[in-house]
Specification:
single chain; about 210 residues; alpha+beta; 2 domains
Length: about 210
């Protein structure tokens, strides 16, 4: 409705105004350092939006910040730069959510759509690799400090406790209180759902 749209527009300026945040909080996210300021600002905004009941928040990190995760060349140098810009803000977001009692009801997912090959490409870069990679999760009903799954010794393929993307989606829906099998619908003689017919909840990472 127009009324809802108006209320959302009126609430936005206050939510995006960081001047009310203490200097200690701004330093926690790295806003006092050039290297971490851009991504730190986004993570702090994410916390403020979560505080105000926003249900889905995506924090982007990429070439707009002078960072490139698509390391087809000089991976070590590039990832060191990326880590220096993102490690502190991500840790600050999780810590801040926990201190404010928000982490239990907020699922934080940190990752991308694939990993990198264990062998070099070009000038010591890495190729796209969807067969064995990691995602980090915090809060939202997940087990704290848990490590699930493993690749072979070279990092080529997942070998133990594999989690397919459909399983991952089923698990996210489960953490949101949604039974993914209830979203099943018949079409052209077979069942379909958001998690396809193969998705299963990974209960091992659920607290």
């Amino acid at each position: 409705s127009f009324e809802l749209a108006f209320r959302m527009q009126m609430a936005a300026p206050e939510a995006f105004d960081l001047s009310s945040e203490t200097s200690a909080t701004q330093q926690l996210y790295g806003l006092d350092r050039d290297q971490t300021r851009s991504f730190g600002t986004r993570c702090l905004l994410a916390r403020r939006l979560a505080e105000r009941g926003v249900r889905f928040i995506q924090v982007q990190c990429g070439k707009g910040d002078g960072l490139d995760w698509d390391q087809h060349g000089d991976l070590e140098k590039g990832h060191r730069k990326n880590s220096a810009a993102t490690d502190q803000p991500v840790a600050a977001l999780i810590r801040d959510l926990k201190q404010r009692g928000l982490l239990e009801d907020t699922l934080v997912i940190w990752g991308g759509e694939f990993g990198r090959t264990p062998t070099s490409q070009g000038t010591n870069g890495r190729e796209h690799h969807p067969h064995g990679y990691t995602l980090c999760l915090a809060g939202g009903g997940t087990r704290s400090g848990a490590i699930h799954g493993a690749t072979d010794d070279f990092g080529w393929f997942s070998e133990r406790d594999k989690v397919h993307i459909h399983d991952f989606h089923a698990t996210i829906l489960h953490l949101m209180g949604i039974n993914h099998t209830k979203l099943t619908y018949p079409y052209s003689g077979r069942d379909f759902r958001l998690t396809d017919v193969h998705g299963e909840v990974c209960h091992e990472i659920v607290s």
